[in-house]
Design goal:
alpha/beta; 6-stranded mixed sheet; 12 strands; globular; binds adenosine-5'-diphosphate; binds magnesium ion
C-alpha cells in the first residue's frame, strides 16, 4: 500500500523585509527591497561598493530606520511611526528586545579593550540579559572553543590577531543565543590568511543550521555557504536565486559584469 508523502514543512520566516526604502538626503539608497530569510537559511547579499548592502543590513536591526516598508523578526513587525524621513522607532522596549535576539558582526570587531576576551563574551548575557554567571561562563567558554580560541579567554583584545578578535566577536554574538546572525563583510579588514579561519567558523555555523544574513565580497565563500544569494544593484534586487543559479546561470548583464570584475580583483 502506498502512503501519501507528507508535504515538506515550510520553515517560518525569521527575517521578513517588505518594500524597504531608504534615502540619505537626496540619495535614494534602497528603492523597494523585499526578501525573507527562513529558519536555518543562509542568505548572502552581494553587490558593488555603495549598492546599499550595509544600509539594508542596518535596517534589519533599525540602526537605520527605513523611510518606507517593514521589517519583521520571527513574525513580529518592528513598530515605526511617522512618515518618510520623519519615521522613528515607535517602541523602544520592543526594539531593545528584538535587538537582543540579533547577533551582529561588523567589519570592525568592536571588542571592549579593557575587558578580557571571556568578559567581552559574557558582557551582554550577564549585564543585559541578567543570566546566572556560572551558566553564562560555561556557555561563553564553549563558544570560544567553538570558534577555536578557548586558550585566549583570559587575554585582552590587543593581544589577539585580527582573525582571533573577529572570532571572539562571533563568539560574543553567539552567546546571546540569537535568532539570526547578521554579518557585514566580517573578513574585509583581515589579511587573507586570517580571513580563512573566520570563514571556516561562519561555515560551521551555516552547517549547524543557523539563520544568517551575510554581506560578503567573497564570491567563492558566498557560493559555498549560501542557500540564497541576492545581488543588489543601485538600490534594487537585480537578481536572486540559489548559488548555482546566480553564479552558474547568471541572467543579469550587470551581475555578469560584477562577477567578472570580482574574479579579476
Ligand atoms: P555598501 O555597503 O553596499 O557599500 P552602503 O549601504 O554602505 O553600501 O552605502 C550606500 C550608499 O549610501 C553610499 O553612497 C553611502 O555613501 C551612502 N550612505 C550610507 N550611510 C549613509 C549615511 N549615514 N549618511 C549619508 N549617506 C550614507
Ligand atoms: Mg558596506
Amino acid at each position: 500500500m502506498t502512503q501519501a508523502m507528507p508535504a515538506p514543512a515550510i520553515k517560518p520566516n525569521i527575517v521578513a523585509i517588505r518594500d524597504l526604502h531608504k534615502s540619505f538626503g537626496d540619495l535614494e539608497v534602497l528603492k523597494g527591497i523585499s526578501f525573507n530569510a527562513r529558519e536555518g537559511e543562509v542568505v548572502s547579499l552581494i553587490g558593488s561598493s555603495g549598492s546599499g548592502k550595509s544600509t539594508l543590513l542596518r535596517c534589519i536591526n533599525m540602526l537605520e530606520v527605513p523611510d518606507q516598508g517593514s521589517v519583521a523578526i520571527a513574525g513580529e513587525d518592528i513598530r515605526l511611526r511617522g512618515e518618510g524621513a520623519h519615521r522613528r522607532i515607535a517602541d523602544e522596549h520592543q526594539i531593545q528586545r528584538i535587538r537582543s535576539e540579533l547577533g551582529m558582526v561588523f567589519q570592525s570587531f568592536n571588542l571592549w579593550a579593557h575587558l578580557s576576551i571571556l568578559d567581552n563574551v559574557m558582557e551582554v548575557p550577564l549585564v543585559v540579559q541578567k543570566r546566572p554567571r556560572a551558566e553564562v561562563e560555561a556557555e561563553a567558554r564553549a563558544m570560544l572553543a567553538k570558534v577555536g580560541i578557548a586558550e585566549k579567554a583570559a587575554a585582552y583584545p590587543a593581544q589577539l590577531s585580527g582573525g582571533q578578535q573577529q572570532r571572539a566577536a562571533i563568539a560574543r554574538a553567539l552567546c546571546i543565543n540569537p535568532r539570526v546572525m547578521l554579518f557585514d563583510e566580517p573578513t574585509s579588514a583581515l589579511d587573507p590568511e586570517l580571513e580563512v579561519e573566520v570563514l571556516r567558523v561562519i561555515k560551521i555555523l551555516a552547517d549547524e543550521g543557523r539563520t544568517m544574513v551575510l554581506v560578503t565580497h567573497d564570491m567563492e565563500f558566498a557560493r559555498s555557504v549560501s542557500d540564497r544569494v541576492i545581488f543588489l544593484h543601485q538600490g534594487r534586487i537585480e537578481e536572486e536565486g540559489t548559488p548555482d543559479q546566480v553564479f552558474g546561470a547568471t541572467r543579469s548583464p550587470r551581475l555578469k559584469q560584477f562577477l567578472n570584475a570580482a574574479n579579476h580583483a
